[in-house]
Design goal:
Layout (H helix, E strand, L loop, with lengths): L1 H24 L9 H22 L3 H20 L5 H39 L14 H12 L8
Helix pairs in contact: 1-2, 1-4, 2-3, 2-4, 3-4, 4-5
C-alpha cells in the first residue's frame, strides 16, 4: 500500500512539472508572460513543490494542498476567461490528474491508519485497551501483529 502511495507522490510531482513547463513545451507561452502562461506556471510550481514535499515526507495536509490547487486548476479557465484550447485542456487534464492521484493517496493513508488502529486494538489485552501506554516492547508487538495477520506462520505457534 505504501508503494502505491509513493507512486501517487511521483505522479503528482510529474504533473506539477508538466504543468509548469507546458507553456514552453506546447508553445502557448508568449515572449511577454501573458495571463494563461502565468496561471499555468504558478499552479504547476505549487503542485510540483508540494509533490516534492510529499515524496520526501508524506503529510496529509500536503495532499489536501494539492487537491485545493487541482480544483483551482480545473476552475481557472472559467474564472479567468481562458479560451485558448490548448491551455484549457492542459489546465483541466492536469487538474483532474492531480486530483485523482492526491485523492487516491489520501484514501490509501486513511486505510493504512485504520488497519493499524484495528490491529492495535486487537493486540491489547482487555484490561489495557483503555490505557494510553503499554509495557510491551516493539518487538513483541510486531510479533503479535504478524501472528494476527498470518495465523499459520511459525511465529503464531
Amino acid at each position: 500500500m505504501r508503494q502505491i502511495g509513493r507512486y501517487c507522490d511521483f505522479a503528482t510531482l510529474t504533473i506539477g512539472a508538466f504543468l509548469f513547463m507546458s507553456p514552453w513545451v506546447l508553445g502557448f507561452g508568449a515572449p511577454k508572460p501573458n495571463l494563461p502562461t502565468q496561471i499555468v506556471s504558478v499552479l504547476g510550481a505549487v503542485i510540483g513543490v508540494t509533490g516534492i514535499a510529499a515524496v520526501i515526507a508524506v503529510e496529509v495536509w500536503e495532499l489536501y494542498i494539492v487537491i485545493a490547487f487541482a480544483i483551482a486548476s480545473i476552475a481557472s479557465p472559467w474564472l479567468f476567461g481562458i479560451t485558448e484550447h490548448s491551455v484549457f485542456l492542459v489546465l483541466i487534464l492536469a487538474g483532474l490528474s492531480a486530483l485523482a492521484t492526491s485523492g487516491a493517496h489520501i484514501l490509501i493513508v486513511r486505510r493504512t491508519h485504520a488497519t493499524t488502529d484495528q490491529l492495535d486494538s486487537k493486540l491489547k489485552p482487555r484490561d489495557e485497551r483503555h490505557r494510553t501506554s503499554r509495557g510491551s516492547s516493539a518487538r513483541e508487538s510486531s510479533a503479535r501483529r504478524r501472528a494476527i495477520l498470518n495465523p499459520n506462520s511459525p511465529a503464531a505457534q
